[in-house]
Amino acid sequence: MRGLQLPLNQTQRIRLQRAFEKLQSLSSKANSDASVTVADTIPVNYEDAFLKGHGTTDLNGELVATVCGVVERINKLVYVRGLRARYKPEVGDIVVGRVIEVAQKRWRLEINFNQDAVLMLSSMNMPDGIQRRRTALDELNMRGIFEENDVVCAEVRNFQHDGSLQLQARSQKYGKLEKGQLLIIDPYLVKKSKLHFHHLEQFGIDLILGRNGFVWVGEHVETRDKLCRIANAVRVLSTLGFSMDADLIVETVELSSSLKIDIHDMLGSEFHVLVAEQEAERRSLMGKRRR
Amino acid sequence: MSKTEYVSPEGLRLDGRRPMEMRQLRAEIGTVAKANGSAVFEMGNTKVIAAVYGPREVQNRSQLINDHALVRCEYSMANFSTGDRMRKPKGDRRSTEISLVIRQTMEACILTHLMPRSQIDIFVQVLQADGGTRSACINAATLALADAGIPMRDIVTSCSAGYLNSTPLLDLNYIEDSAGGPDVTVGILPKLDKVTLLQMDAKLPVDIFENVMGLAIEGCKAVANYIREVLLENTKQLEFRRGL
């Protein structure tokens, strides 16, 4: 089990097992039936016209999956939604990246994609805020804006002809991220929502859930250990494989502070088991409310 | 001169198996947390760990391919994997050959044209060697690639078979392998029913070779069933834990 190499004692193991079983019973039966692995045949009615989407290929006239995942059907489109995979970018996504290289008139950022993304100097606001043509002097001063290993928040602008991404950071909310922690989780755990920037007022923390699986927890004011608590909550949720949004992270942090768990103990076995139990409760309540 | 009996008159091998019986298989996915995909595969006492990184940016610009992904593979044996502690586990001729073999086998099934200008690294390390390390490595690499979500046209499974005491034997262990008899390693794409790897050392008459190769292919299909079960279970687990 990924990352779950925790020393669990007997009772913790049983409790964790029960929590997972409860989650499994709550999950949609349709989804588990539609799970496929590589080279599994996808059941399709070949007489109807259908479109072959991502994750599928034609093998001897049959439709076959190329990744492990769940088959999704939307109107006439049949595709396989892969779970663990690299980030699949869409134009307009908010991503967080780390600067790998300062090149001619651009920065190269690592963003958990097949290739590194490019942030052009012209797609970045100048420090003095004036809109002007970038001169050779600006090019020489690029390191003054972003250096190697800086963490940057940006938006996907478009795809280049060779398949790599071009980013832009033209608004005030994008740019260099300082005084915080960068956490790397799987992209499939970040739910697509309207808001990706969250300012958690009760903690004084900024939380940015990048769609590429890079999560930034940063200080708004001097609040270092609240930041650590939130970062640990993200780590625990990622280890357990639960998809997350800001509300769930806040709930997890509140669980830890209400039980007076030490920040360091949040990464221990007992807290993992408690979070799994709480998530099982939460999903069953959500299910009841819907009915 | 006494000849060691590899198959007893009752039809039992040195470890108590029947000639057409495989060793016990065990697979675990997601063992290396930092890698994009990883797996541990055991065939009896042979234990192998595979880690896949990618697709990611090509590290060596001169090797960049414009229309498909570059696949690199490295095979190594841990010092403690064999009976005597090994001095040079990497870079020797056998490791280089097996790295090349695994790379060619996996490259044939990965849909590299979907990931142009990127690089996929496969690292395989043998933790315990008891015969059939090549096959275990290929099986582990397949699991790790599926775990990393890299699109493949089919899974690749591999198994070895030999011929001792006039009997075709499936899945040789170290003692049977060192007996000096022929050792046939086969890798197949189970769904397409195509052979992608075929290696043999020593000599065999053609009709016996056909028998032995057929036996190895049966073994590969059994491994394929097991691997598919493991992958399906893992996919279901990830899906229900993810929630909505």
Automatic annotation (TrEMBL), chain A:
The keyword Ribosomal protein does not apply. It is found in: Nucleus. SMART domains: S1. InterPro entries: Exosome_RNA_bind1/RRP40/RRP4, KH_dom_type_1, KH_dom_type_1_sf, NA-bd_OB-fold, S1_domain, S1_RRP4. Pfam families: KH_6 (PF15985), S1_RRP4 (PF21266). Its main location: nucleus. It comes from the Eukaryota. The keyword RNA-binding applies. Residues 90-170 form the S1 motif domain. Keywords: Exosome, RNA-binding. Belongs to the RRP4 family. This is S1 motif domain-containing protein. The lineage of its organism: Eukaryota, Viridiplantae, Streptophyta, Embryophyta, Tracheophyta.
TrEMBL record, chain B:
InterPro entries: ExoRNase_PH_dom1, ExoRNase_PH_dom2, ExoRNase_PH_dom2_sf, PNPase/RNase_PH_dom_sf, Ribosomal_Su5_D2-typ_SF, RNase_PH. Residues 21-151, 154-218 form the Exoribonuclease phosphorolytic domain. It comes from the Eukaryota. Belongs to the RNase PH family. This is Exosome complex component RRP41 homolog.
